[in-house]
Structure formats: structure tokens, C-alpha cells
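Bug: C-alpha cell stream looks shifted between consecutive jobs. Job 1:
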Amino acid sequence: KTILFILLCICVFENISCLNSICSLPKNAGPCKAYFPRYYYNSKTGKCEKFIYGGCKGNQNNFQSSKDCEQNCHK
């Protein structure tokens, strides 16, 4: 039981630190020219903000809705 609990704690911690690193990435619209309204977490303002995603490349700090951004990045 103890080992299972420790493994569970490690998995939870790893997911939280992974999300934190995604949320600290800068806004990146990517090089393509499509027009997809998206949201990213601005770590300087502590808020989810709208931006236009070009449709390719970019990074993982890219959410389809403000709600998704807030659920993943607000502390």
C-alpha cells in the first residue's frame, strides 16, 4: 500500500510540474497563416489571454477555450 501511495504521489507531482512548464511557455502563433482564435496563459500577468494561432507548430501553451486555459494553468 505504501509503495502504491508513493507512486501515486510521484505521478500527480509530475503532471503538475509538466502543466506548470507548459503554462510558462511564451505565446507562439506558429509560422502558418490560418486564423484560429485560441488562449494562452500569460505567466507575466497571471491570466489567460486570447491570441490567433496560425494552425501549425507553435507550442503547448495553446488552449481552445478560456475555460481550458484556466483549468490547466490557474493556480
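Job 2, same session, no restart:
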Amino acid sequence: MKKLNDCIDSYLDYTNNRDLKASTPVGYQHMKEKYTTLQLPFADQKRVDIDIRYNGSVTEFIECYKTYAAAINFMKDNPGTSYFMDFQKSIMTILGGGDPDVTMVTSWMPIFIRFARKPGTNL
């Protein structure tokens, strides 16, 4: 089974080679080092928390969201994991614009993803 951080590294390497990188002021690798904290390894825990601490522009939030997407892909590739997400604000609220709270939202955006082993599995 792939480790979660390997999955994220692969995803970020892939996105680094796309045109999106040219339009982003903060590189994905820098974003991961600055904003993402992973508690691993998965095999030794019943739960893994990913805490993406976002502290910048909407563009930087989108980059953080890429890491979140990589985690979702990890779960799809490893059946037996379950998760729930807790967003302080909806991504649509942030991207929609015109929200009086958008400044507050973009200054602090935690995303928590928790993995839990299902009973009766070896995951």
C-alpha cells in the first residue's frame, strides 16, 4: 500500500509539470513544506490527520486543495479507508467572490482529513 506522503509527492510532481504552475506565485513543493503537516505512518495508527494550515491568497488555497485532492486519491487507491472532512468554509464560498468574510477565510483555512480503519480489515 502506498504511503500517503508518497501519493502526495507524486501528485505534486505531476501538477508541477502542468501549465497551472506558471500562474501560481507559490510552488507546490514550497506549499507542502510550509502549510502541510502529516502524521505518519498510516500502518501504525488508527487515524491519520492532515492539517493543511493555509495562510495566504486564494491561489495558495487552491494549491493546498491540490494536496487535499491527492489524499482523496490515496483513499480511492486503498479500499477500506474511511474519512470525513471539516471545512471552516466551503470552497465555493471562497471561489465565488463577493463574500464579506472572504478576507477572514483566506487568512486561515484549516482542512482536516481523518483516516480510520474499518473493522475486520488489515488496513
